[in-house]
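Complex record, two chains
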Amino acid sequence: MPVTTIAGRDIHVDDEGFLTVYAEWDDDLAKQLAANIGIDLTDAHWKAIRFLREDYRAQGETPTIRRVSTVGGIPTKDLFTLFPNKPGKKMAYVAGLPKPHGCV
Amino acid sequence: MTTQTAPSIVPDFGDGKPTGRKLAIICSKGNLDMAYPGLVLANAALGEGVETHLFFTFWGFDMITKSRMHDLKFTMLGNTATHMPQGLGGLPGMTAMATHMMRKQIAEIGVPEVPEFLDQIVASGGHLWACRMSADMMHLSEDDLYEAVEGIINASDFIEKTEGAQLLFI
């Protein structure tokens, strides 16, 4: 498992760069992860990220776009605006979680 | 930036290098089970940033017809993959029961019903088109169709709109 340096810290990631250790993530890291993919975090982004973190802790898997929308209460359209083109994967990356595995 | 000593491994989300990838899905079936493959794939493609168009034709028209889209059915008849005797499928009430069971199974894994799935596809930027010939055959107009259908178009229009697209016929 590769170790990379993000925000001056050693962080465990998978081959693609998604974080693999839940506890290595914090708000500062999220800002850097977002910056890595050209996103400047606003309150609306944080709302989604907080939901992802909580939901992963409770369910043991990364929520899909649909789940963030229906359970997390953030409209699908907004997710595509906040995390353009690939919202599911981008949210997961910034939230320090694996890619979502669900189909829908 | 930070005091990174080694370059970070950052996932490649394909930003800044638009692929121009497009997906066209022709939905020609009106059975509950055959409605889902197109919807699931459209949803997945949109989540990957792929421009996606769905064209509803023939029996697939049921997926976007207001009076029918909430009531698609699944039948065991002619479907050997249920591994049940074919005669059973023809008994009264079997289609209703099979439909009920399939709906339940789909709901249990958090997948929406057809109308709500279309809502999600549209919210994700998907384009829905209705087939002109089917509309004419069934005497249906835009008023009879799900609101987010962008138009009733003919086959040539669809081919034109999806130039360069990868195409799925379901």
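Note: The helical segments of chain A are 27-36, 43-59, 65-70, 76-82, 87-94.
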